[in-house]
Amino acid sequence: MRTSIIALALVSVVGSSAAFAQVAPSAVTVSPSDAMGSNLVGLDIHNAANEDVGEIEDVVLDSGMKVKGLVLSVGGFIGVGSKYVVVDPSAVSITYDANAKEWKAMMSATKDQLTAIPEFKYEGKFDD
Questions:
Q1: Model pTM?
Q2: Poorest-confidence range of 29-33, 68-72, 79-83?
Q3: Sign of the torsion angle spanned by Cα atoms 97, 56, 80, 76
Q4: Which of 25, 29, 69, 110 can pair with 60 through a Cys bridge, CB separation 3.0 to 4.6 Å?
Q5: Cβ of 3: how many Cβ atoms within 10 Å?
């Protein structure tokens, strides 16, 4: 009986250590066309009429750590009366103007279209 318990404990330890085996991460090459999340947060978004329609507040990652959405602050004036909405990242075109040395964000939506999107609230695990 004691041998069985020791054998079971040994299998348990060996099996669990395989699950926690350390694997070296692979390197990722960052290309000149890539952007960092820190470049996006705080970026004003303009539409084709050059109207300021919102600001990127956050980046949403899915469980696979891929960008799933952009949290935008829309509506209001100087942050008062504004709300958060989440849009598909493909709705926003983000470019870097090398001459001006600044990031630019454009989308085809109007302020009214963005404020019509259901509000996102930082609640639960998303509440800081």
A1: 0.77
A2: 79-83
A3: positive
A4: 69
A5: 7
